[in-house]
What we know:
The protein is an alpha+beta fold. The protein has one domain: Nucleoside Triphosphate Pyrophosphohydrolase (Alpha-Beta Complex). It has three helices and seven strands. The radius of gyration is 14 Å and the shape is globular.
Amino acid sequence: MTKRKLIAKAILLDDEGRLLSLRRSSTDPHRPGGKDFPGGTVEDGEHLEQAVIREIEEEVGIVLREDQVALAYATTTFFDGINDMRFLFVGRVKTGTPVKLSWEHDAYVWATPSEHLKDFKHPVWSEGLKYLLEHDLLPR
């Protein structure tokens, strides 16, 4: 049976419609220096919403409830012998919400979704953001 990995990330939008993206630190083992959304691997027995909320708190120090995030995009990729099932959530936060980065990231920026697409290189997450924009699925 093929191995699988569940990954849950979040687009966090503030009241001005800007979204949060992170820069992976140079010590991060996965894509150092790359743009990223908060999130990560779903642990065994964990629901997707619980995983993305836990990851948001661990990576940026923002605490959300399950009713504050909504699944907006999902896809599956096969990479390095593993079936990666990827889930992209959307959540809302107040403008000015403090961000406290974990060791995995060394910088962050709040910018419009179209500004993020200019240099967001991850093929799955950038396609998810494009999909949400093309179908007007980001809350205003």
